[in-house]
Amino acid sequence: MGSLAFLLYPFAVLYDGVTAIRNWCYDRGVFKVTKSPIQSILVGNLSVGGTGKTPMVEYLIELLHDSRSLATLSRGYGRKTKGYIQANSNSSPNQLGDEPFQIYQKFGQEITVHVCEDRLEGILQIQANAPSTSLVILDDAFQHRRITADLAVVLTTYDKPFTRDLLLPMGRLRESRTGACRADVIIVTKCPENLKSEQKNTLRKEIQNYTQKNTPVLFSRIGYVAPYALTEHAKWSDQVILASGIADDSSLEKYISRTYGLIDKISFGDHHDFSRSDLDALSKLWRKHKDQNPVILVTEKDADKVKSLLEEGFLPEIPIFVQPIKIQFSIEDETILRDLIAQKVN
Q: Where does ATP bind (predicted)?
């Protein structure tokens, strides 16, 4: 970062001081901490975005929804509303935020989906509106110290682990690395395939310098399943134009390049609010490569926002597909995680 790092250093020190005082106040009881009145699993991270929280939440939903009356609670980042909202058939990404809306679209028949900036208030509303709920998954709530969950799952990526990152604004950390001591398990996400034991052990030791002594460090990777059509009568082609509005699309780009033919891409910011002008830009890209018979591939996170614009008359001859992803563990690490959940949430 060079000279820029020198300029940002005083702000990082100030940020560290503010977050350290805040955490000290919660740890010492100066600020009130409330135990979640419904059993809960927290999924969070130490850094800003891009660690794979939503795939992890979906993994937990698939794992637990058959045995528990399950709800999810998110802040609803990027939504145009405020306060507590329970998702229903009339909800939209603008009302819920793109990630809660995605979860509702996939799992709304099996679970309830809720958003609220204040997680404690959200839990109390769930008690009132969905009283049969026996377990809540709290999405992105690790820094929301007012409420304590039964199990804290903290994610960090393999390529950019929190142990090698710096505090905002020099880096992407929301709080000091020592915050990892509050985690019940650390999951390293977006790992490469065939990661060797030696590589795991090296990173595990590095991470455990900041955790409690017996905190497990597990490793996961992103699994990609077959794309599905977003537009009617669309036909698949291995020639892909990638369009993404996520925090970090590097893993997806590598997968597309390796598996299909990535002929072009356009990246938007995280939680991007797609507009008609964005679709016009995609249309121009598609026409530019029309001779190669390409498809436009979007992420699940972006799919519903893009689909809502298609209804305004986007050209139907342009095939648009969605790329789903799933969290995958080794058998050993998945067993450790399942056992830990059974111990903490019974």
A: 47-54
